[in-house]
Amino acid sequence: MGNKKSDVTLGEILRIYRMPMSLRLLFLMTAISLTIGYVFNLAQIMVHHHDNNGGGFLGVSPESIRAAYYGKRDASTLELKLDGAMGRYVTPEEKSAIIFWIRNGSNEELYHTQVRDMFERNCVLCHSAHSFRSLASFEDVKKVTQINRGMGLETLVRVSHIHFNGMTALFFMSGLITCFASIRVGGWRWVKWVVIVLPMAAMIADILS
Ligand code: HEC
User: Fold this and answer.
1) pTM assigned to the model
2) For residue 18, which of 27, 5, 6 has the smallest C-alpha distance?
């Protein structure tokens, strides 16, 4: 018996329909959990990288991803938020006044005479001095008028190392299950190889880029 022949035989033995019920159940439940997890991954991307201008595919656009990672360097965090989720707490006039103040150097004197009331009236309810992001004093507000530089290298390194290890484990599981699937149409075995290789290749390309 040649090497080739015994490979084929082994390949044919490792099939889902030949497995004991316990292994089949394990594979089934893993596949179901991974699928549900995947739906949540997509939801997380859509919620987190939502394009405030409503553009893009399902609310996510290259610009919104870019704003999250690279930052929006022509605008501060405060301006970005006022254009987005926090915009509902100000009137259009108040918003223009605050943006005008930011773009003109956000100085302390004008803060007290022109915009402080707006922050106190609209924002401090949630952004009190003890909150996760205080907007209760000039110094605090000043911090969010700096240019938004996105996530920065430190965050990217942290997120990437978690993603690399976590996703490799997930793709190993889904790839392993795929190994046991049988494709009965002749000449289509390469589909399995693509399904096994592509997720990891895409992840590596994504993170390295
Ligand atoms: C009802 C509560 C609430 C009000 C009112 C509110 N915010 Fe927020 N704000 C939040 C929450 C929750 C977050 C965190 C989630 C997010 O970033 O969207 C946040 C985030 C922010 C951030 C980003 C903070 C950071 O460190 O990333 C800024 C800037 C901001 N708000 C500004 C404002 C301004 C300016 C106002 C008033 C015009 C305002 N917010 C009113 C609840 C509120």
Assistant:
1) 0.52
2) 27
